[in-house]
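Troubleshooting log. The previous run stalled partway through. Resubmitting the same three chains, unchanged.
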Amino acid sequence: MPELPEVEAARLAVVRAAAGRRIVAVRCADDPIVFEAPPARVRRALLGSRVLAAHRHGKHLWFELDRRPWPVFHFGMTGGFHQPRAPGVRLVSYGRRHPGEVWPPRFTRLRIALDDGNELAFADARRLGRVRLRHDPRSEPPVSLLGFDALLELPPPRRFRALLRERSAPLKALLLDQTFAAGVGNWMADEILYQARLDPRRRADTLSDEEADRLRARLRTVVATSVRALNDSDRYPRTWLFHDRWGREPGALTARGEPIRYLTIAGRTTAWVPSVQR
DNA sequence: CTCAGTGTTCAGTG
DNA sequence: TCACTGAACACTGA
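Second attempt completed without errors. Output:
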């Protein structure tokens, strides 16, 4: 699932493909789980409008159109944008890829045709993604309920320490809480805690100033580095836990040869390295 | 057939 | 009331 880096890669792709273009055709699935509004209203909002920009806060992405309301997308676990590379043949994916790399992709929920002949599709196999219409996304739920954007709005050290002091949740649960740091998901939370050398079960209000500063510094670099890699995980540093944490393998080791252990915290699989994280 | 999964929500609990 | 946890959601793929 798409965490902040995937959503940011999708935002950049949407800007590149659609900014300045008019939407000339819309196909919207009749899917009341993914779409908050009926298909006719989604269609009416998009058709004939011009895309001016695309914005992101945490894992939410929305189009700025030349009239309101605007569409707001959340990718859930398996959602993402796709566009054809060569019509009818291959496609380019931002967010989760789905099997069958042809156009239109499997599990397409929304297709948008642009005035230059290009197309965008929003697909979501598991249907945990959401598409909403909002007049002012930033000031309305769900975006208005989010905490600081983990890429753009990281609080300064003193403020960050104060935020930790008022929370008693385990660090892993806190990092996953979107009203704290918007955009951090399961693997990024584990990566941040591994690099900050902090036990995922530690309660936020027990951190020393030095530990809080370490957590903040790694939060910043993990987010910035994965965004800079445009969500291409092959470009993440070799030493990242990311490469070795999948599959809950009993004998899994980090690149430095440290044994990886698994826990469930806040209902999510948590990979960590007891020899390093205190 | 079973189960885990890159996410969010909400009922239940302390 | 607040904060937190875990089941539920819905579906694919290993």
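Takeaways: Chain A has a mean pLDDT of 91. Residues 209-228 of chain A form the longest helix (20 residues).
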